[in-house]
C-alpha cells in the first residue's frame, strides 16, 4: 500500500535492524551545499530566477520589518524568517494556487511565497485596513483566502490539524463529492519545538490513517526560543542526536531529511512529496535543517546561541548559495540577478510606502467579521437582531 | 415573535430522571392528552430526533459530514449517528482516533475549506482537550482573517450531570465556552427542539457549540415536520405566567417544570423560559418576561461562579434593574467537583424543591388553590 519514496542521489536509506513497517523512506542526513555541483542544472532558468527572487524577497521583507519595528511602525511580537528562506521558497513555489499552506507565528514569508503581495503583508503588519486581514490578524495571523493561505497560527502545533482538515477536504471532494480533478495538497509548516507537542503526533497518525494529501514540513532551526532542540527532544534510537524525520516511518509515512539551507534540495524533496500526495498515496514528513539568523522574535535578546554556531550557519546562507549555483550553471547572468534584487528592493520599498499611506481601520470594523452570520450577536430587547441596530456598523454598539 | 412560533414546546415528554427525582418518575401524572396527535405522529426519543436531524441534513447537503470518536461503526456513544456510516460511508461519518485536539482542528480546517463538519465530543468534558482549537480557531479565525474564512461547524455532544458518572464526566462546559468570542452556544431540551435546533446549527455559517444532556437522550416526544428549522437565537417560552420569571435551560427545564407542578397547586403562576441560546441571550424574550413578572429566578446546572446564570444575572441587573421588584435569585450547582456518591451528587445540583422554595421566597406566601 505504501509506495516507497525513491531515493535521491545523496540520500542513503537508513536501515533499522528491524523492519516492521514497509516504509523505507528514511533518508540519512544530506551532505550540505559544499558538495560539487552536478553538471546538468536541477532546475530551469525560470524556476531558478523565481526561487531566487522569492528568497531575496523573503529576506529583504523581513529585514525591512526589523527596521520598521524599531522605528515604531509595527508592534507586538514579530518573528522574522531570515535564514530559513530556502524552506518556504523550496516548498511553496512549486505548489499550485489551489494548494493550501498552513503556517505559524513566523508566517510573513510563507504568505509571500504563496503569492500574497508584499503590500498586503506589510500593511497588515502596520495594522492598516489594506492589510491582508484588514489589520485584524497581525504578524502572527496572516491569512489569504485568495491564495489559500489558511493562516498563521500563533500557538505551537495548532495549525497542523487545521492543515489536515484542508487535506481531508481535498480527498473528500474526490471520494465523496466525485470531483475527480480534486488533487490539491496542503503543506503545514512548523518548527522543531512543535515536534514535541501532542498535536504533531495526533496529526501524523490521522494523516497516515486516512492517507491525506498533507505534507508536514518541519523547519528545524535547532532552537525553540531558548530551548535547544538537543535539550528538548530525546534522541532517536541509535542516534547521537534526535532526528524528527525518523518519526514519519513510525506512523507509516516516508520521512525525509533535507538540507534546509539549499533551496534546490528542498524543492526536490518537496516535489516528490507533493506528487506522492497528489497521486493519493498519502502524507510525507520532511525535516528541513535550517537556521534563523535572528532571535526568536524581535523582542528576543538571543543570548543563548553561540557565535560559532551562528557563523557556521551564516556561511551556509541559502541566498548566496543559490546565486553561486545559478552563475555556475548558466541559469542567470550577474546582470539578471542584479535586476531581480533591484526588483525586490523596489517591491519592499513600495510595500512600506503603501502600508504607511494606507488608512487605519475604521471603528466600524470592530464588530464586523466576529460572526460570518451576524445573527450570532443575538436579539436585542426591541426584538431586532443586534447587528441591525444603530451603532453596529459604526462599531460603537455594546454587543453583550 | 415568541419562540413558540418557531418551535412549540413539546408536550407529553417524559420526565428525565436524575438524582433526587427518581421517586417522581413512577407515578407520572399529568401527561397531556394528545390522543389525536398521537394517532398521526409517533413519539421518538431525543437521540433519534438528533439522528434524524443529522441524517436529513446530510441528505440535503453533501458537504455535511460527521467526525468524532465512535461516531461511525459504533454509531455514537449515545447512538446519535447510529447506522449513518452505512448510508453515507466511512468518510462522511468519520471514526477518528482518540485525539480531541487533533480531530477538532481537522474539523476546523475542513470547515474553512468548504465542508460542514459536525464534530462530536463523545462527552462534552472531553472537549477540554480541544479547548485551544475551539477557542483560538473556531471562535477567532473568522475575525483574525478579516472575514476571509468562515468556520461553519457544529460541535455537539452530551454534557451535564448524569447519574453517578463521577466528576470528569459530569461537567457543564457552557460556562467555560461562553466567553469565547465568535461562537454561539445552544442547549436543546426537548425532542422537538433538539431536532429543529440541530438542523439550524448545521445550516449556520457560525461555529455552534451544541449542548445535549446525558439524561435527556431517552426523553420521548414528537418532532416537527422535516422542514422545521428553529431559530438558534430564540428562547422558548415553556409556560406563560405572571408571578415570577424562571430562566433555565437543558435538563433543568424538567426540574423547574416539576417544581411548577407543585407551585401551581400552591396557587403560584410562574413563567418558565428555556433560554436555548446560552450565548447570545435572547434579550427580547427575557426582557418582556422580566417586565411582566418583575422577579427573576435563574435555575441552571452549571457552576455558580462564572456560569451562565452569572452572566444572565449581570445582564438583567444592568439593563432591567428598574423593572425588578426583587433581587435576582440564582439556583446553580455548588462550586464543587461532582461527587460519585448519589447523595452528594444530588446535593451538588439544584433540586425541584429548591425551586419551589425560591419561588415562595420571592413571591411571598400564597393561599393554596382550592382543589
Automatic annotation (TrEMBL), chain A:
Gene3D superfamilies: 3.40.50.970. Its EC number is 1.2.4.1. SUPFAM superfamilies: Thiamin diphosphate-binding fold (THDP-binding). Its cofactor is thiamine diphosphate. InterPro entries: DH_E1, PDH_E1_Alpha_Subunit, Pyrv_DH_E1_asu_subgrp-y, THDP-binding. Residues 53-362 form the Dehydrogenase E1 component domain. The pyruvate dehydrogenase complex catalyzes the overall conversion of pyruvate to acetyl-CoA and CO(2). PANTHER family: PYRUVATE DEHYDROGENASE E1 COMPONENT SUBUNIT ALPHA, PYRUVATE DEHYDROGENASE E1 COMPONENT, ALPHA SUBUNIT BACTERIAL AND ORGANELLAR. This is Pyruvate dehydrogenase E1 component subunit alpha. It comes from Volvox africanus. The lineage of its organism: Eukaryota, Viridiplantae, Chlorophyta, core chlorophytes, Chlorophyceae.
From TrEMBL, chain B:
It holds the Pfam family Transket_pyr. The keyword Zinc-finger does not apply. Residues 44-219 form the Transketolase-like pyrimidine-binding domain. Keywords: Oxidoreductase, Thiamine pyrophosphate. Its EC number is 1.2.4.1. It catalyses: N(6)-[(R)-lipoyl]-L-lysyl-[protein] + pyruvate + H(+) = N(6)-[(R)-S(8)-acetyldihydrolipoyl]-L-lysyl-[protein] + CO2. InterPro entries: THDP-binding, Transketo_C/PFOR_II, Transketolase-like_Pyr-bd, Transketolase_C. One of its GO terms (molecular function) is pyruvate dehydrogenase (acetyl-transferring) activity. Its cofactor is thiamine diphosphate. The keyword Oxidoreductase applies. The pyruvate dehydrogenase complex catalyzes the overall conversion of pyruvate to acetyl-CoA and CO(2). It contains multiple copies of three enzymatic components: pyruvate dehydrogenase (E1), dihydrolipoamide acetyltransferase (E2) and lipoamide dehydrogenase (E3). PANTHER family: PYRUVATE DEHYDROGENASE E1 COMPONENT BETA SUBUNIT (PTHR43257), PYRUVATE DEHYDROGENASE E1 COMPONENT SUBUNIT BETA (PTHR43257:SF2). This is pyruvate dehydrogenase (acetyl-transferring). It comes from Volvox africanus.
Amino acid at each position: 500500500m505504501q509506495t516507497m519514496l525513491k531515493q535521491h542521489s545523496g540520500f542513503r536509506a537508513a536501515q533499522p535492524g528491524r523492519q516492521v513497517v514497509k516504509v523505507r523512506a528514511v533518508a540519512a542526513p544530506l551532505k550540505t551545499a559544499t558538495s560539487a555541483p552536478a553538471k546538468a542544472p536541477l532546475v530551469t532558468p525560470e524556476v531558478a530566477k523565481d526561487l531566487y527572487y522569492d528568497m531575496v524577497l523573503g529576506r529583504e521583507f523581513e529585514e525591512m520589518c526589523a527596521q520598521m519595528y524599531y522605528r515604531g511602525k509595527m508592534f507586538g511580537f514579530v518573528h522574522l524568517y531570515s535564514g530559513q528562506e530556502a524552506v518556504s521558497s523550496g516548498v511553496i513555489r512549486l505548489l499550485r494556487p489551489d494548494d493550501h499552506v498552513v503556517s505559524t507565528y513566523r508566517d510573513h514569508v510563507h504568505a509571500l511565497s504563496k503569492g500574497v503581495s508584499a503590500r498586503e503583508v506589510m500593511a497588515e503588519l502596520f495594522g492598516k485596513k489594506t492589510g491582508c486581514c484588514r489589520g485584524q490578524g497581525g504578524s502572527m495571523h496572516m491569512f489569504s483566502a485568495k491564495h489559500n493561505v489558511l493562516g498563521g497560527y500563533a500557538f505551537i502545533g495548532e495549525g497542523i490539524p487545521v492543515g489536515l482538515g484542508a487535506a481531508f477536504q481535498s480527498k473528500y471532494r474526490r471520494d465523496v463529492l466525485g470531483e475527480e480533478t480534486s488533487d490539491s495538497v496542503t503543506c503545514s509548516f512548523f518548527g522543531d519545538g512543535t515536534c514535541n507537542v501532542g498535536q504533531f503526533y495526533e496529526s501524523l497518525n490521522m494523516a497516515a490513517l486516512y492517507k491525506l494529501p498533507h505534507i508536514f514540513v518541519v523547519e528545524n532551526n535547532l532552537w525553540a526560543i531558548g530551548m535547544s532542540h538537543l535539550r528538548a527532544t530525546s534522541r532517536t534510537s541509535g542516534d547521537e542526536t534526535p532526528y524528527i524525520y525518523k518519526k514519519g516511518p513510525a506512523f507509516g509515512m516516508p520521512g525525509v531529511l533535507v538540507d534546509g539551507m539549499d533551496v534546490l534540495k528542498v524543492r526536490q524533496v518537496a516535489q516528490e512529496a507533493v506528487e506522492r500526495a497528489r497521486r493519493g498515496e498519502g502524507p510525507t514528513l520532511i525535516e528541513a535543517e535550517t537556521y534563523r539568523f535572528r532571535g526568536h522574535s524581535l523582542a528576543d535578546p538571543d543570548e543563548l546561541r553561540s557565535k560559532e554556531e551562528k557563523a557556521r550557519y551564516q556561511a551556509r546562507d541559502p541566498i548566496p548559495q543559490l546565486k553561486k549555483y545559478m552563475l555556475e550553471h548558466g541559469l542567470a547572468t550577474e546582470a539578471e540577478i542584479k535586476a531581480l534584487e533591484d526588483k525586490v528592493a523596489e517591491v519592499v520599498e513600495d510595500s512600506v510606502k503603501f502600508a504607511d499611506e494606507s488608512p487605519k481601520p475604521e471603528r466600524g470594523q470592530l464588530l464586523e467579521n466576529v460572526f460570518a452570520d451576524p445573527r450570532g450577536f443575538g436579539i436585542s430587547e426591541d426584538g431586532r437582531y443586534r447587528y441591525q441596530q444603530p451603532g453596529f456598523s459604526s462599531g460603537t454598539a455594546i454587543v453583550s | 415573535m415568541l419562540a413558540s412560533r418557531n418551535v412549540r414546546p413539546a408536550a407529553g415528554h417524559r420526565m428525565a430522571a436524575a438524582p433526587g427525582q427518581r421517586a417522581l418518575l413512577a407515578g407520572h401524572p399529568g401527561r397531556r392528552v394528545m390522543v389525536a396527535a398521537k394517532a398521526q405522529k409517533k413519539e421518538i426519543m431525543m437521540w433519534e430526533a438528533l439522528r434524524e436531524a443529522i441524517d436529513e441534513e446530510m441528505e440535503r447537503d453533501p458537504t455535511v459530514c460527521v467526525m468524532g470518536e465512535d461516531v461511525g461503526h459504533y454509531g455514537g456513544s449515545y447512538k446519535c449517528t447510529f447506522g449513518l456510516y452505512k448510508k453515507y460511508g466511512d468518510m462522511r461519518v468519520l471514526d477518528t482516533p482518540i485525539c480531541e485536539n487533533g480531530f477538532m482542528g481537522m474539523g476546523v480546517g475542513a470547515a474553512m475549506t468548504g465542508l460542514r463538519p459536525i464534530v462530536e465530543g463523545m462527552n462534552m468534558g472531553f472537549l477540554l482537550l480541544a479547548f485551544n482549537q475551539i477557542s483560538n480557531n473556531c471562535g477567532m479565525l473568522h475575525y483574525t482573517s478579516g472575514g476571509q474564512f468562515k468556520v461553519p461547524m457544529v460541535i455537539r455532544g452530551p454534557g451535564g450531570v448524569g447519574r453517578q458518572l463521577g466528576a470528569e464526566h459530569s461537567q457543564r462546559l457552557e460556562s467555560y465556552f461562553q466567553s469565547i468570542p465568535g461562537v454561539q452556544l445552544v442547549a436543546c431540551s426537548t425532542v422537538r427542539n433538539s431536532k429543529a435546533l440541530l438542523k439550524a446549527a448545521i445550516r449556520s455559517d457560525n461555529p455552534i457549540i451544541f449542548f445535549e444532556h446525558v439524561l435527556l437522550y431517552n426523553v420521548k416526544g414528537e418532532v416537527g415536520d422535516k422542514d422545521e428549522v428553529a431559530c438558534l437565537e430564540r428562547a422558548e417560552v415553556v409556560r406563560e405566567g405572571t408571578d415570577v420569571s424562571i430562566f433555565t435551560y437543558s435538563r433543568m427545564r424538567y426540574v423547574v417544570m416539576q417544581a411548577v407542578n407543585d407551585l401551581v397547586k400552591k396557587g403560584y403562576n410562574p413563567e418558565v423560559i428555556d433560554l436555548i441560546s446560552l450565548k447570545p441571550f435572547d434579550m427580547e424574550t427575557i426582557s418582556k418576561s422580566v417586565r411582566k413578572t418583575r422577579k427573576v429566578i435563574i435555575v441552571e446546572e452549571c457552576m455558580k461562579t462564572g456560569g451562565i446564570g452569572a452572566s444572565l444575572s449581570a445582564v438583567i441587573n444592568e439593563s432591567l434593574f428598574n423593572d425588578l421588584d426583587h433581587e435576582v435569585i440564582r439556583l446553580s450547582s455548588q462550586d464543587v467537583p461532582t461527587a460519585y456518591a448519589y447523595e452528594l451528587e444530588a446535593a451538588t445540583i439544584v433540586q425541584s424543591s429548591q425551586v419551589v422554595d425560591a419561588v415562595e421566597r420571592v413571591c411571598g406566601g400564597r393561599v393554596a388553590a382550592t382543589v
